[in-house]
Amino acid sequence: MRVIANHALCQGHARCEDLCPEVFATDAVEGKVVIVQEEVPAALEDKVRLAVRNCPEGALRVAKSGPAEGAA
Amino acid sequence: MTLLFQPSPPDHVPPERMVDFDMFHIPEGVSDPAEIWHDLVRRGVPDIFYTPHNGGHWVFLRYEDIVEAYRDHSVFSTYQTPVPPIEPFPVVQPQGVDPPAHNVFRRLLAPMFTPTAVRGMMGELERRAAVLIDGFAERGACDFITDFAERYPTGTFLYLFGLPEERLDAFLALANTFFRSTDPAARAQNIGEIYAVLDQLFREKKRNPGNDIATQIVMARDENGAQHPWEDILNCGFLLFVAGLDTVTNTMAYIWRYLATTPAAQKHFRDRLDDPDGFLRGIEELMRINAVSNLFRRVTHDCEYRGVQFRRNDRVVLPNTVANRDPRVFKAPQVIDLDREVNVHLTFGVGPHRCIGSVLAKREVMVSLQQWLRRIPEFKLADEQPAGSVFGGSVMGFTALRLQWEVAAKRAAA
Hints:
The complex is a heterodimer.
Chain A: E1 2-5, H1 15-19, E2 24-26, E3 33-35, H2 45-53, E4 60-63
Antiparallel strand pairs in A: 1-4, 2-3
Chain B: H1 35-43, E1 48-51, E2 57-60, H2 63-71, E3 76-77, H3 103-109, H4 115-119, H5 122-134, E4 141-143, H6 144-149, H7 151-160, H8 168-180, H9 184-207, H10 213-219, H11 230-243, H12 246-260, H13 263-270, H14 276-289, E5 294-299, E6 303-305, E7 308-310, E8 315-319, H15 320-323, H16 358-375, E9 379-381, E10 390-391, E11 397-398, E12 402-405, H17 409-413
Parallel strand pairs in B: 2-8
Antiparallel strand pairs in B: 1-2, 3-5, 4-12, 5-8, 6-7, 9-12, 10-11
Helix pairs in contact in B: 5-7, 5-16, 9-10, 9-11
């Protein structure tokens, strides 16, 4: 599983970082989300899904592992 | 003086959307000011309605519409929004400015309130909470507002702005006049006093820079390498002064009032003193249920939204407390579930003006409750509460909240 952030939507609530700091952090300039590891370890998948569902901006989504969409 | 932002008479409002509602008036006998909002939903008033009170304004009741108003600044502006309408109104930075201009101060402040920045404040936040609570723990009673809830965020402001503790009472007096006075002359003088204090503070920080937010604001440079306009610097200081005090005070008041009447909830948090994730999940739920802010927007041009006609300068009020109990978004919205897993509450707003201090505010509440529970046994509301201690408006809350608890016998005898 991969997790993808939309920086145009992120407003820096940092709910994701509270819920899964192993995967989400906040940058020090704009205060927006930084994905620490895009490829989510199996043990963290539930926490990441919960973080995605708790984003008040709908700025996060998960996708299947593999090459980034639109890369082709 | 030419007035530019006055709402027009409501002849564009259809009679079925007209509701008699005064957001500042809490009827006698109502002990929770948020109930006047939830009562509207129970009565089944239209989810977009207009009230002629306080200069006339719309109210949105649906989560989805409140989100839309927060996000779409091309229609719902934060520039010149007061209800009732006052002109000219101070343009606070960055809250009172629409994107993209608002990004200048938003970016300036953003690094100061990230989770990483707030982690660096935790030791001081804990120490300050402990000192205040130790001051009354053995008394077995306190007025939670005057003994803690207003002193704590004001002290946090002093700390963040690099100001000495001796200024606390002077700042409390300034804040209390600002938030509670209804006398226009006293209010005008008070705003002048706050700006004078900020002017002096920023001048001092420019001469003697410190490791604090005031210094960072005054020393920041714009894209041309110049200091930001002095007026904007003062307006930014003013925002941080007014935005982080009353909101935190009354959120805490709501939460402690709930805990005082709900021993099982006290136990829930006491059992999680060593489980920060579980503790925070509970805090997040109390944030959802106790949303004290009702925010204002101003319509930028004549338009139609969801089939309703709006006119330029119409005011719109967004009650977060109603959005946070919208059954279309929250499962069992009226139930306080301290283990609620999905909780996209709007207590801090969404969109470009999302409360920049939301992470700090939550930590202030969390640390305060942790320090409290480590020092004070099960507590309850005192039998006597002063009459008329609730208020409504853009921030809802309490002017008094008397709490009491048992003091250990050997200590009491000593």
